[in-house]
Amino acid sequence: MPGNQFGEVFQLTTFGESHGRSIGGIIDGCPAGIEIDIEAVQNELDRRKPGQSKIVTQRKESDEVHFQSGIFEGKTTGTPIGFQIMNKDQKSKDYSHIKDVYRPSHADFTYQKKYQVRDYRGGGRSSARETASRVVAGAVAKQFLGTIPIAAYTKSIGRIEIAKSYKELDLSKVDQFTTRCPDEEMHLQMEEYIKKVRKKGDTVGGVVRCVIQNVPVGLGEPVFDKLHAQLGKAMLSINAVKGFQYGSGFAGTQMNGSEHNDQFNTDETTKTNNSGGIQGGISNGMDIYFDVAFKPVATLLRQQDTINEAGEEVEMQGKGRHDPCVVPRAVAIVEAMAALVMADFVLLNRMSTK
Questions:
Q1: Model pTM?
Q2: I want to staple 276 with a disulfide (CB 3.0 to 4.6 A). Which of 10, 188, 246, 268 is the partner?
Q3: C-alpha of 32 from chain center
Q4: Using the 8-state DSSP alphabet, how is residue 115 labeled?
């Protein structure tokens, strides 16, 4: 089926394009009686929205969410929750020069070949603007999850990386920094680097780390719907993501089993957490932590060689308003997708353990 829906029980279907009239979605499967703080939902959107600092795209969108259904007197009704976000600051003329041109590393070529048509204005449906709808649904999922906190932060920008563990950081301060790196010294280095890259008309990538705490034991559905498999799918569905690892990840390949095994304490916790809170695809009660790698933004404000729809070699240069680095805004998206996965598994667990 078309890939516009996510989740088994707690489901999100999104619609809309970057330069269309609006974007939005429908959340289905959310239980009735959940109190929804609309201001908290809007706050999550504000963390993702463009124009929030000098190191992100300067497109000015209020990204104000309008709920159309499924919430009555501040609580969910158990029926589909419909919502819409209007697009107000489209500048489609910024893309007229690439109407017949394939931008390197964008979805232009693949969309054209698959559908024989494409919305070239900001990438249409392939634009990261679609992720605003995910953030709305993730904010609702967070409120359903309640006592399962989910926090993400910028772990690295380019080669600038935090050496500290997430346990050494105050994750409540993430939003105090434009880079969303809760280490002031590293934040300043990252911010300065992004500014330098932007000045050159170039872009840079980075890594977002996400931590999920107070997770009950037993979330995850073997064999193909393992908890980490669904988290990986969720993260890899985000625009510009090139990698996912949880727990020890690739570093675990350099360890011996005697180092890597998480030995138990008598209270059923583990002395180490190389498993990243998941064993056999099922949560074990320890913190779940994972990293999401984001590539450099493909649109450069400098000249690049490419081809057009006729297969001719041409030169092009990006125009308009673009992020020199998506990582600071992606923090909210990573949290949202993690919340959708966790909400889905909480509901699935209720069904499978009755």
A1: 0.94
A2: 246
A3: 26
A4: H
Range of the domain at 292: 5-352
**Integer Cα distance of 166 and 247 in angstroms:** 12
**Single-letter amino acid, residue 111:** Y
How far the first Cα of the chain sits from its last, in Å, is 30
Total of domains in the chain: 1
What's the confidence (pLDDT) of residue 123? 76
Contact criterion met (CB below 8 Å) for 345 and 219: yes
Per-residue pLDDT of 100-158, as tens digits, reads: 888 888 888 888 898 888 887 767 788 888 999 999 999 999 999 999 999 999 999 99
Element holding 149 (H helix, E strand): none
Q: Which residues contact 3 (CB under 8 A, 6 or more apart)?
A: none
In sequence order, the β-bridge partners of residue 292 are 208, 244
CATH number, position 59: 3.60.150.10
* Residues 101, 308 contacting (CB under 8 angstroms): yes
- Is 42:64 a contact under the CB 8 Å cutoff? yes
Return the structure tokens found at 76: 């969910």
